[in-house]
Amino acid sequence: MSKEVTVKLPGKLFIAGEYAVTRPEHLALVTTIETDFQVHIAESQEKSTLHTNVNMQDEHFQLSELGTFQPKDEQWFLSLEVLKIILKKCGKESFSSEIALTIESDLGAGEQKKGYGSSAAVAVGVTEALNTYFSLGLTAFERYQIAGKAHFQIQGNGSLGDVAAISFGGSIFYKSGKNPIWEEAKILAVDIPWTVYVAQTGKAAKTSEKLEITLPDTFFEQSDELVIESATAIDMRDFDLFKEKLLENQLLLIQNIPEGYMTQKLALVLTLVNQHENLVGKISGAGFGENVLIFAKSEENIAELKNECEKNGIVLIKATISQEKI
């Protein structure tokens, strides 16, 4: 019976620092939630293959010819970049057979993207699956570095906070590296004691375009301070302080990001959520659509909130923070 490996990946949601951390040596808080995203690898008898349930063409190639192979669908560049980096790092002798690699994603694509870090999940998932399938023995941080390097080289920007969070699971306090950004990153586990919900607006936003916004130096300083203060509030289990700092962080973003950052639906969710003492919500990620991340001190008001969201075409789901791997 041929060997097969399946790895399951969480999605990411930024709590704070998502713009500031795109600069080297800045800070963010990121959490991960369970999803049905998975990467499967099995032995292939002739050529290696790439397949996904997302609208992408299948690809067929020989691992020995990977350096010159050009996929028909450019969306496969990230998976192939991970393969190239691992081949170079571990040596071709580690790859004893051709592979059939399948990605099953429920994170959406294009206009249906959920904003959970689908490209980061691809980079991490392919890295994790290859490590297990070929028994490479890579450490957790080495796997993060490979996925991060591939992601950065293909995307050309970002902090890799999404890659770090999905690599290590749970919730993390993240400091981006200096040069290269994936080498010197700092990752610490954070234990969030409150229930997590996500309000999905159904509007996808391309993060890479939003990260080109020019921001003043004072923004980055204030963002880092609020990340530290928010992390301290989590550590102290002080929900009221956490809500105060998260709302200050939200206000900082609203005041500095161009018009359109807070869409009508995002504004509505924030109003509905933050009027309740036991709830706090913040736009997660680059804004301009997608999600509001919500923390609940208690379940009071959730049924009311869900009803109001549904009336306005917004989906409210209860999320589960993924298992910590640090």
Automatic annotation (TrEMBL):
Give the protein name, as stated in the record: phosphomevalonate kinase
Could you tell me the EC number(s) of this protein?
A: 2.7.4.2
Q: Which GO terms describe its molecular function?
A: kinase activity
For this protein, the record's InterPro entries field holds: GHMP_kinase_C_dom, GHMP_kinase_C_sf, GHMP_kinase_N_dom, Phosphomevalonate_kinase, Ribosomal_Su5_D2-typ_SF, Ribsml_uS5_D2-typ_fold_subgr
Record key words, sorted: ATP-binding, Kinase, Nucleotide-binding, Transferase
Q: Where is the GHMP kinase C-terminal domain?
A: 233-313
Q: Tell me the pathway.
A: Isoprenoid biosynthesis; isopentenyl diphosphate biosynthesis via mevalonate pathway; isopentenyl diphosphate from (R)-mevalonate: step 2/3
What residues does the GHMP kinase N-terminal domain cover? 82-170
- In this record, what's one Pfam family? GHMP_kinases_C
What is the scientific name of the source organism?
Answer: Lactococcus nasutitermitis
Q: Which branch of life, at top level?
A: Bacteria
